Amino acid sequence: MRLISNLVLVVLVAISEFDRSFSINYDNAGIVRREINQRRVRHGVPKLALNNELSKVCHSYAGKLSKETNITYSDPTNKDYTESICKFEVKRGALSMCVKNWYNGRKFDILDPRAKDFTAMIWKSSVSMGYGDANINARQGVFVIRYSPPGNVKGLYTDNVPPKKRRKKKKRKKHRHKQKRGCANRQYNRCAILLSILILVSTNWPN
After folding, report:
1. Positions of the region Disordered (predicted)?
2. Most buried residue, 145, 186, 197, 205, by CB count within 10 Å?
């Protein structure tokens, strides 16, 4: 009986560890997705939805990267997704900073390799993204993003990476100073009356 109890306990622990290793951090996924979509809106392209199936493989690959010395892309030759990876410090705002750094790639030509994370983020025909992360140690982590359908397709950059939309300038309303104009008009009328009186008096004044 004790043996069976111990086996059940072992199985339950194994299941909990399995679930933990394959659980997606939806809080972090939400932060990164929000940051990416805010920038997509700036370029007039649709927002991305979070794909759970894609997120599972992202999470799995992030776990693999967390145990390796070098951060490498899974398969640059694949045709199913576009991948971006960021190694970050475990602190407030670190995830947002990764997206900000990717977006800085807009400073380069869209065909420049240094712009690849930016163009992948903005790619118009991509409709969903996967997210997964893992802790490397107590101070560092790594997260993986995959976009689908894939971006950075040769020959399609112009159609899928539109420039940032210009902000519409607000028209300033010209305030008419009716009161001031009214005062000026009244003052002019008074001066005209006084001048008329002076002319009338001077003409009729006895020599």
Report:
1. 156-183
2. 145
Full-model pTM: 0.71
Q: What is the pLDDT of residue 31?
A: 96
To 5 degrees, how large is the angle CA 151–CA 131–CA 60? Answer: 110
Q: Of 76, 167, 59, 60, nearest to 116 (Cα)?
A: 76
CATH of the domain at 40: 3.40.33.10
Burial class (CB in 10 A: 0-12, 13-18, 19+), 68: exposed
For 145-198, write each residue's pLDDT tens digit.
Answer: 999 999 999 999 999 999 998 877 666 665 555 444 554 566 666 767 777 776
From CA 84, how far away is CA 117, in angstroms rounded? 6
How many folded domains does the chain comprise?
Answer: 1
H or E, element range at 7: helix 2-21
User: How many whole angstroms separate alpha carbon 155 and alpha carbon 153?
Assistant: 6
Domain span holding position 34: 24-148
Domain assignment present for residue 74? The answer is yes
181 within some domain: no
